[in-house]
Write a structure and sequence with these properties.
GO terms for molecular function: carboxypeptidase activity. With 347 residues, the protein is an alpha/beta fold. The protein is 30% helix and 22% strand. The chain folds into two domains: 145 residues, 3-Layer(aba) Sandwich (Rossmann fold); 184 residues, LD-carboxypeptidase A C-terminal domain-like (Glucose Oxidase, domain 1, 3-Layer(bba) Sandwich), CATH 3.50.30. A hairpin with a 4-residue loop joins strand 15 and strand 16. The longest helix has 22 residues. The protein is globular.
């Protein structure tokens, strides 16, 4: 399979669609959603356009797919944003008009459950963007994180290579969106630890593929969107885990099964996101957060040791469910330079 192609990018002043292909949470939590819409306009100069199911928690998979089709088919809309993730986008896949999507390629921004659509676009030869959540990152209390905003602006409006950096600080805990006080103060943060490198002996370049580990495991269980192992030869795999905070054992099992399927061995390098290590039902302190991330790292290394012992890996890059959030082009070129300890993404 040829590497996916970058669709045309928007410019300030353009209209962009804002959809809910997974969950209509803007209808439940309007405050972060409307804050995100204002920042799309005020910070990025874009004109957000909502669709019928954007604020509907009860929208059917067919209705959500219809909104996607309408947004991609509209020549006035220059990019498409998911409001947030969820857990039901896999049921939208069967309703996608793939010929329409292929004929009208546009940048799609989303993460978490939007792994479903991003992988489907990858299979159609279209680069998408893992990141840019309207509610979570654009709708961050008080202000967008500057590191997030800088990455999103680069993904939206620029082309060419961009070398990644480690942020100064990362968010540790979030407020309850149902509590108005949440939006009066910035989330708690702590200093960011540096990346951890494994087998950093060479330089690898290839198109990216991946997303949220749990969602990819669902796609494999449902036998949806996963190609033959040879389709991923030389690609750079990127993975991260969600706010559900899967155990180290579960992370190992998913990667083990990818190895058994013959997938894990095909990639040229692995980029592993910094694991989200706090949620409302797991309010970990600093020691517990560090231990959770260390356990996950060891689980990944165990799977690599068994199935891809020579694979180069970089841990704790800030994409996915992290805050701040780097936007990763899905199907775009990544260069992982072990000796130089550098990761470069091409937007």
């Amino acid at each position: 399979m040829d590497a996916p192609q970058y669709p045309p990018k928007p410019s300030p002043g353009d209209a962009v669609a804002v959809l809910s292909p997974s969950a209509g949470l803007p209808g439940v939590f309007p405050v972060p959603f409307e804050l995100g819409l204002r920042r799309l306009s005020d910070h990025f100069g874009l004109v957000p356009v909502e669709y019928p199911t954007t604020r509907r928690p009860d929208a059917s998979p067919r209705e959500r797919a219809d909104d996607l089709h309408a947004a991609f088919a509209d020549p006035a809309v220059k990019a498409v944003f998911a409001s947030i993730g969820g857990d039901d986008q896999i049921r939208v896949l069967r309703h996608l008009d793939r010929d329409l999507l292929r004929a009208c390629p546009k940048p799609f921004f989303g993460f978490s459950d939007n792994t479903n659509l991003l992988v489907a676009l990858w299979n159609l030869g279209i680069v998408g963007y893992y990141g840019g959540s309207v509610m979570l990152h654009l709708g961050r209390p008080v202000r967008m994180d500057p590191y997030t905003a800088d990455s999103l602006r680069a993904a939206l409006f620029t082309s060419g290579p961009r070398t990644l950096t480690v942020p100064d600080r990362i968010t540790t805990a979030a407020g309850d969106w149902a509590d108005p006080a949440t939006f009066t103060r910035e989330p708690d943060t702590e200093p960011a630890t540096p990346w951890t490198w494994h087998n950093a002996t060479r330089r690898v370049q290839g198109p990216t593929w991946g997303g949220n580990l749990e969602i990819l495991s669902w796609l494999m269980m449902a036998d949806r969107e996963i190609q033959q192992p040879s389709a991923y030869d030389g690609c750079v795999l990127f993975l991260e885990t969600s706010e559900e905070m899967p155990s180290a054992a579960e992370v190992y099992r998913v990667l083990r099964n990818m190895g058994e399927r013959g997938l894990l061995q095909r990639f040229g390098a692995l980029l592993m996101g910094r694991a989200k290590a706090w949620h409302f039902d797991k309010r970990y302190d600093a020691r517990e957060r560090a231990a959770y991330r260390a356990d996950q790292r060891q689980a990944v290394l165990r799977a690599l040791g068994e199935y891809a012992p020579d694979l180069m890996a970089v841990f704790d890059i800030d994409f996915g469910h992290t805050e701040p959030q780097l936007v990763v082009p899905v199907g775009g070129t990544a260069t992982v330079d072990g000796p130089a300890r550098q990761v470069t993404l091409t937007y």
